[in-house]
Amino acid sequence: QVRLVESGGGLVQAGGSLRLSCAASGSIFGSYRMDWYRQARGNQRELVARITSSGTTMYADSVKGRFTISRDSAKNTVSLQMNSLKPEDAAVYYCNAYLGGYDCWGQGTQVTVSS
User: Fold this and answer.
1) Residue 82 in contact with residue 88, Cβ under 8 Å?
2) What's the chain's average pLDDT?
3) What are the tens digits of pLDDT across the range 8-43?
4) How far is it, in rounded angstroms, from Cα 82 to Cα 85?
5) Residue closest to 108 by CA, chosen among 92, 87, 84
6) Minimal CA–CA distance to 22: which of 112, 111, 93?
7) Strand pairing of 77-82 and 91-99?
8) What is d(CA 53, CA 33) in angstroms, rounded to the nearest whole number?
9) How far apart are CA 9 and CA 80, in angstroms?
10) Mean pLDDT to the nearest integer, 1-9
């Protein structure tokens, strides 16, 4: 099993940057597909970025060119670097780990973007 703890959220002005981190417990972290999702108030949770165990990445169209997902298997962490933030990026951001039908979520971290 994996336990996930997100950090790095906060308040930032539009155009600014934030770096979210997700710390994972568990000895096979490197085998998990890791995702960042977000959920704005009144909206459904949406996939923002994904990184596979082999390092392949994918991004939602709305964040391409602005967000970068990365993982450090030695430190059991996955990060989301968010640049050029927009008010519409404001949401609770969640880290997710997936492996062979096993699905685990963190508690979320709030990102607020002021215009």
Assistant:
1) no
2) 95
3) 999 999 999 999 999 998 767 888 999 999 999 999
4) 7
5) 92
6) 93
7) unpaired
8) 5
9) 11
10) 92
Asked if residue 66 lies in contact with residue 84, where contact means CB atoms within 8 angstroms, the answer is yes
- Assigned token pair, 104: 């685990």
Residue 112, Cβ density class (10 Å: 0-12 exposed, 13-18 middle, ≥19 buried):
middle
Q: How far is CA 61 from the centre of its chain?
A: 15
Q: Which amino acid is at 105?
A: W
**DSSP character string of 31-73:** GSEEEEEEE-TTS--EEEEEE-TT--EEE-TTTTTTEEEEEET
Contact 54, 42 (CB under 8 A): no
